[in-house]
Amino acid sequence: MIDITIEKMSEKHIAELAEVEQQSFSRPWSYDGLKAELDNLSAVFFVAVADGKAVGYIGFHTVLDEAYIANIAVLPEYRRKGIASALLQCAIDFCKENGFAFITLEVRRSNINAVALYKKFAFEIVGERKNFYTAPTENAYIMTLYFGGPNQ
């Protein structure tokens, strides 16, 4: 585990997060797309800061008592150091503290590392979306963590 702090996303993070996007996804969010989330009242974004810079983030949107993860990404040189786990835990804690019913996401079926991460946090595969991803085209698992059950 690397020494990180987790902060709410602010304008100072946007340029660095746009770079995280570029290095993480075949269809990355733009600087303007990330910046627009600052004014989105249903958006919650947390940023991992290490070595004085934003090295990863998790962003999700809320609808009533539901949370939908849009993205979780970490710069390649900071991966496998516990940052994604810390970000995911932060999102889960936020949802639990705010009385959410569940948190859910889509993930590429071939992304075995991400699927394993979500399973480690007790997310369940609850469905599949055909051809959800492009560049390349691929199905997505829908993975959900429900709150409020006997083990939560």
Unreliable residue runs: none
> How many DSSP H or I helices?
4
How many strands in all?
7
The radius of gyration computed from the alpha-carbon positions, rounded to a whole number of angstroms, is: 15 Å
**CATH level-four homologous superfamily name:** Gcn5-related N-acetyltransferase (GNAT)
How many domains? The number is: 1
Task: Give the N-terminus to C-terminus distance in angstroms.
Answer: 25 Å
Main-sheet strand order equals: 1-2-3-4-5-7-6
Helix-residue proportion = 25-40%
CATH class type: Alpha Beta
For this structure, the CATH topology is Aminopeptidase
Structural class: alpha+beta
Description:
With 152 residues, the chain is α+β, with helices and mostly antiparallel strands. Helix content is 27%, strand content 38%. The chain has helices spanning 14-24, 31-36, 83-97, 112-120; strands at residues 5-8, 43-50, 53-63, 66-74, 102-108, 124-133, 138-146. The protein has a seven-stranded mixed β-sheet, sandwiched between helices. A hairpin with a 4-residue loop joins strand 6 (124-133) and strand 7 (138-146). It is globular and about 40 Å long. The two termini are 25 Å apart. The mean pLDDT is 94.
